[in-house]
Amino acid sequence: MNSFHQPVLLKEVVEALKVKKDGKYFDGTIGGGGHAQAILRLGGQILGLDYDPEALTSAREYLTTACPSSIESRGPNAAWRLVRGNFKDLARIAKENDFLPVDGVLLDLGVSFYQLRTPERGFSFNLEGPLDMRMDPNLKVSAADLINGLNKGELEKLFEKLGEEKLARRLAEAIVEARRLKPISTSAQLVEIILKVKPRRGKIHPATQVFQALRMAVNDELNNLKEALPAALEILKSKGRLAVISFHSGEDRIVKYFLKEKAEEGKVKIITKKPIIPSWEEIKENPHSRSAKLRIGEKI
């Protein structure tokens, strides 16, 4: 398995998508390529997408090694190909790549292990690096821009809404006070401020929710998801499956109510009345999976 990526709920995703030989599957978040590799080994075709050019490079290297019997190429019968882009544009990208209609769409939300283990990307609170967090390096606003530019009320709202942080006000106050002395430019600086407000207790790092909120804001993740879901439904063939793995209650809520709305319109059959979550064994092996929730819908 790719040393940079341990796919979450792998067996459950393969079952959810009902992977079959020569089926077409759109992986809207290729990440390290772990889910795509499993689909390819079952004979499926993959169009893989990622916002992050470094993730695409990592996935391309991994799939070339892990699936030597298939090569990346273009055309309707290609085993796999990777494209850079935002999954909110997946309908356009599928059309441009002559990859329609599809048997399944996978969206694995959140940050990849590769991104967390690359200090210069700034996603991790465990590794010192610039406070960046842009999945697409062409985005204009970084996490440092938000931390140093938003006022106290805006920071509090951000931490509450996207981080579900109970100490949002105290953290916002501490950040504003600290940046009066000097700009907050590294992940280590931000972690130091957070730890003064939230001493470390238990297994979950005190900075988890603040870093999550910043990442989601920098990359506009909730709005991208809202646009991606109807686009995914559009490119699915009848009986095709949409599988979404979320790691945040706000993301899960969006997926849940999208499927509910489309089911009421008679366009989708909900396969998961309750989300599928990782087993204790998986969580023990891959702690990153602990908050994962998988929801599945089938196009009617």
Give your account of this protein's structure.
This protein is of the alpha/beta class. The chain has helices at residues 10-17, 34-41, 53-66, 90-96, 113-116, 143-149, 152-163, 168-181, 187-197, 208-218, 221-235, 249-264, 280-285, and strands at residues 24-27, 45-50, 80-84, 102-108, 236-246, 268-270, 293-299. The chain has a seven-stranded mixed β-sheet with strand order 3-2-1-4-5-7-6, with helices on both faces. Helix 2 (34-41) links the parallel strand 1 (24-27) and strand 2. Helix 11 runs parallel beside helix 12. It is globular. The two termini are 35 Å apart. Its EC number is 2.1.1.199. S-adenosyl-L-methionine binds at residues 33-35, 50, 87, 108, 115. One of its GO terms (molecular function) is rRNA (cytosine-N4-)-methyltransferase activity. Keywords: Cytoplasm, Methyltransferase, rRNA processing, S-adenosyl-L-methionine, Transferase.
